[in-house]
Amino acid sequence: MIAAIAIGRNEGERLVHCLDSLRGQAARIIYVDSGSTDGSVEMARARGVEVVELDMTKPFTAARARNAGLDQLRQGAVPDFVQLVDGDCEVRPDWIGKAAQFLEENPKVAIVCGRRRERFPEASVYNAHCDREWDTPIGEAKACGGDALMRMTALDEVGGYDPRLIAGEEPEMCVRLRQKGWKIWRLDAEMTLHDAAMTRFGQFWKRSRRAGHAYAEGAWMHGAPPESHYVPQTKRAVLWGVALPLAILVLALIVSPWCLLLLAIYPVQIARLARRGGGSKAAWEEATLLTLSKFAEAMGGVEFHLRRLTGKRGKLIEYK
């Protein structure tokens, strides 16, 4: 049996597309709502979908929502496979069938994912950035994203998602799955359409901050060799977002203000990345965003460690 779990809050028409796309592909569909005020719960129930409403007096994380959906699935006939999907995504018509066949033929694979695409990549440079980010290598992978078909026995073996994580919960769970001998696989197949609805720089900055928080926390949890989870991403954020600008500022104060010219390393880095990407307008846009994101990622990493040292719980970083 195949089931599906969608999570969301105030996704509106995006949730309609999401739930309708699961019809005929899953025997059970569960929607986990995290305090919507736009009628999402009523809309889901009207479609015959099982609804779980999270207790919002407790700190919310997407990991907690997904675990709640998995707990609901265990009340009754437990499925062999479950499709996890974010409420702002539409599952492609033939995806679950292809993915389920792959899991049936490969019993050591715990999770299989495919190509997630942005619904409106032309709407903004930020949406286009997301679309390129989703285009990950085909074959065995280290991690998946929020959309994937998963084997229930594997999820049960590792206890599902870590509900404490405010971001990066899927890659962290994949670390634990791989440590148990399971494999993660990326198929060359269309999986979902995602609507980032990201049209402002501020949204991009928050999303990058969240990524930096996830990198720092992931490295703190699983950064030791041989895993080195998120260690390269954390090092790049620290180098470009903290170490270099601080070093240049110190040199300018101690040696000469002319040392501020060393900040030219950033446009040089953008040019290097753009040339490596082919030199097109899109390559220059991507190179600029990747370089700027390092400052936001560094901020997110600093936030994680400050909260860790002070014992404060991390707050959700939402960009929409």
From TrEMBL:
Residue ranges of domain Glycosyltransferase 2-like in the record: 10-119
Q: Which GO terms describe its molecular function?
A: transferase activity
The protein's name is: Glycosyltransferase
Cited Pfam families? Glycos_transf_2
Q: Which InterPro entries match?
A: Glyco_trans_2-like (IPR001173), Nucleotide-diphossugar_trans (IPR029044)
Keywords (A to Z) from UniProt = Membrane, Transferase, Transmembrane, Transmembrane helix
Write out the transmembrane intervals: 238-266
